[in-house]
Design goal:
The complex is a heterodimer of chains A (about 325) and B (about 300).
Chain A lengths: L31 H6 L1 H21 L16 H8 L1 H32 L6 H13 L2 H11 L6 H7 L16 H27 L2 H9 L4 H12 L1 H16 L3 H6 L11 H9 L5 H35 L1
Helix pairs in contact in A: 2-14, 3-14, 4-8, 4-11, 5-8, 6-8, 8-11, 9-10, 13-14
Chain B lengths: L27 H28 L3 H5 L13 H8 L11 H31 L5 H13 L3 H13 L6 H25 L3 H9 L4 H12 L1 H17 L2 H6 L7 H10 L7 H22 L1 H10 L4
Helix pairs in contact in B: 1-13, 3-13, 4-7, 4-9, 4-10, 4-12, 5-7, 7-10, 10-13, 10-14, 12-13
The chains are: A mainly alpha (about 325), B mainly alpha (about 300).
Chain lengths: ~325, ~300
């Protein structure tokens, strides 16, 4: 599994830090204190991240309503899930939200990083400004942007008062645009982090590369795009994975900003799960949805193993 | 790359100087660079500005529009109301109960989760046992699992032991979900220390706890500051666990804020809502501005918590 690297310091070999790289420091002599000391870890790893997940999966095959039971009904919950518009729209929303968020965040984040890298004055000030939203919770983010998007008193009306009377900017009131409003709020909160990680990646690239590019007369923008960017795969991967994990579980900002509406236009899988185990008292259905949410994570892990296996194979040949 | 990723010294990659081509004079390009950065900065600062000016306006002035204007008539009543008397449903005690609940939750969860993770990281670096690496692998997998996948069984489990919807319960939940990333942080930190430190302790006859308390604990101050920043902001900003596990008695500030703002009874008081929003954001913001570059260090590790 990935270990998130301090960006930039050793960005070169890709993000797949492995246990194998971790040199054995001591002989594995059994020490009872060590086991006792890590009891909380044992309980958490096994009890929460194995047993709880297994129970979630088991209950997804039952007709549990308010309380969990063990009346197995096969795949019926999954059939119901994928026949449910609310769920299908949730999944589609998540896909749109994810692709847009990650795409814009990467482009905007990299642009900010590149511009920050131009020996500018007040770099620390700019960094603080780009990063401070991340210190605030997504609930705060959602509520602020909900207010700014207010159709009657928000940005829309402020701009109209300046003279552009046809100006339209209230994405949250329309089903077709609400999701984009959510994306914008999320970006405001998180772009700074992408910027910080990519900037660290930029600074980790060997300065000889810059000299060589200059000697060859390659324009600066080309160097950034085609030479430096491919060299900082580690930082890009770190930024990507951080966003991926955040996006799959997106919940707080939806609740604060739109509550899934208008209609179901900003409904998300994470919200679907919570609604089914609370208000809708349909645990079996909620667990089926939760189990589906595991899939992208499993996919990520599979891709990582594949990459590592590939890297090992290459290393073996060399 | 990663075993040494978070090094004991604070020479974070982010802190080294820019490597870009040297600017010569003021050119169109330079102006473009600053224009882009300043426009971006305006985008990032705009919501904070709007929050502040809205919270200082009276409701009649807000209804006139002019979202971005500095208040014509400055008022601090919304702040008092948000803190003291704003309503969530039938309760009209403002945000203060939520604030104190968040203080309690944070004050308990931060030390508990950090001490446990510190011992984990230490054991995983110096006292591996059969299966310890597997446990660590599971834990890291846990960092990527959407919380929704484990939440329901956890509710049932905590109810069985009588901890659901209690203060100890929410502390346990924060400890569980903080553990993957904190353990990783400490494991990487201890792994980067020279092994001679450990061997010297062994030669002196110190055991697991002796080495931990006498050698490792004093050395881990810098990384612990990062961990504290990470946990204080993360736990303060939590919403999902607070909604599900804290119960009505221990409702954290974020949950109460959301309830105050989205409460549908009566006219919506935007100035009070924005004052409440700033109050909720205040603690992590103060942590951010005091900690500065330490915060950036925590981010790479912390963002994974989502």
């Amino acid at each position: 599994m990935t270990q998130i690297a301090e960006p930039g310091e050793r960005a070169a070999p890709g993000f797949a830090g492995t246990a194998a790289e971790h040199k054995p420091r001591t002989r594995r002599k059994f020490n009872i204190q060590s086991v006792l000391g890590t009891t909380p870890m044992i309980v958490t790893a096994v009890g929460v991240f194995v047993i709880c997940i297994i129970f979630s999966i088991i209950w997804s095959f039952t007709n549990s309503k308010l309380f969990p039971n063990f009346n197995f009904i096969g795949l019926a919950q999954y059939e119901r899930l994928w026949a449910n518009d609310r769920w299908n729209i949730s999944v589609r929303n998540l896909a749109v939200f994810g692709v847009l968020s990650i795409g814009v965040s990467m482009v905007f984040g990299y642009l900010l990083a590149v511009f920050m890298d131009q020996r500018i004055k007040q770099e620390d000030l700019f960094r603080s400004i780009f990063l401070y939203p991340f210190a605030m919770s997504l609930v705060v983010t959602g509520l602020v942007w909900q207010w700014m998007f207010d159709p009657n008193l928000g940005i829309q009306s402020a701009v109209r008062q300046l003279g552009w009377t046809n100006f339209e900017f209230a994405p949250l009131v329309k089903q077709e645009t609400a999701l984009y409003g959510l994306v914008l709020g999320g970006l405001w909160n998180g772009v700074g982090v992408t910027m910080a990680i990519l900037l660290a990646g930029l600074r980790g690239v060997d300065s000889e590369i810059w000299k060589a590019a200059k000697v060859d007369g390659i324009p600066t923008w080309k160097t950034y795009l085609f030479i430096v960017l491919p060299m900082m795969k580690g930082a890009v991967a770190t930024a990507f994975i951080l966003q991926m994990t955040g996006i799959v579980r997106v919940f707080d900002i939806v609740i604060a900003m739109t509550q899934g509406g208008p209609g179901v236009s900003t409904q998300m899988p994470a919200v679907y799960v919570i609604q089914h185990i609370t208000d809708r008292v349909n645990v079996g259905q909620g667990m089926a949805a939760a189990t589906m949410m595991l899939l992208p994570v499993m996919l990520l892990i599979a891709v990582q193993y594949l990459l590592r296996w590939n890297a090992n194979r290459k290393a073996g040949r060399a | 790359m990663t075993t040494e990723a978070i090094s004991p010294g604070l020479s974070a990659g982010t802190l080294s100087g820019p490597r870009g081509p040297k600017p010569k004079t003021v050119t169109i390009g330079r102006i473009g660079v600053y224009a882009f950065l300043i426009i971006s900065a305006v985008f990032f600062l705009m919501p904070l500005w709007v929050m502040i000016v809205t919270s200082l306006k009276t409701m009649p002035e807000i209804r006139e529009g002019h979202l971005f204007n500095w208040p014509a008539l400055l008022t601090f009543d919304p702040w008092l109301k948000a803190w003291d008397t704003a309503c969530t449903g039938r309760d009209c005690n403002g945000l203060k109960p939520g604030f104190w609940n968040s203080v309690k939750i944070t004050a308990l969860s931060v030390p508990v989760s950090i001490v446990i993770a510190m011992i984990n990281g230490y054991a995983l670096s110096f006292w591996k046992y059969k299966g310890s690496e597997l446990l660590f692998g599971i834990l890291i997998f846990g960092a990527f699992v959407p919380f929704q996948v484990v939440i329901y069984p956890l509710i049932i489990g905590l109810s069985k032991v009588g901890l659901f919807a209690t203060l100890p319960g929410i502390v346990v939940v924060h400890t569980i979900f903080g553990m993957p990333i904190l353990t990783l942080l400490y494991r990487n930190f201890f792994a980067s220390l020279p092994i001679e430190l450990f061997k010297a302790g062994r030669v002196d006859g110190a055991g697991f706890w002796g080495i931990f308390f006498r050698i490792m604990l004093p050395m881990s101050v810098p990384i612990t500051i990062v961990a504290i920043i990470l946990q204080v902001t993360g736990i303060w900003n939590d919403f999902l666990f607070g909604t599900v596990f804290a119960g009505r008695e221990n409702m954290p500030m974020t949950v109460q804020l959301n309830n105050i703002v989205t409460t549908t009874t009566g006219t919506r008081e935007y100035n009070v809502n924005m004052a409440a929003t700033i109050l909720t954001a205040a603690v992590p913001l103060v942590v951010y501005f005091i900690s500065g570059k330490w915060f950036v260090r925590g981010i790479a590790a912390g963002a994974v918590k989502g």
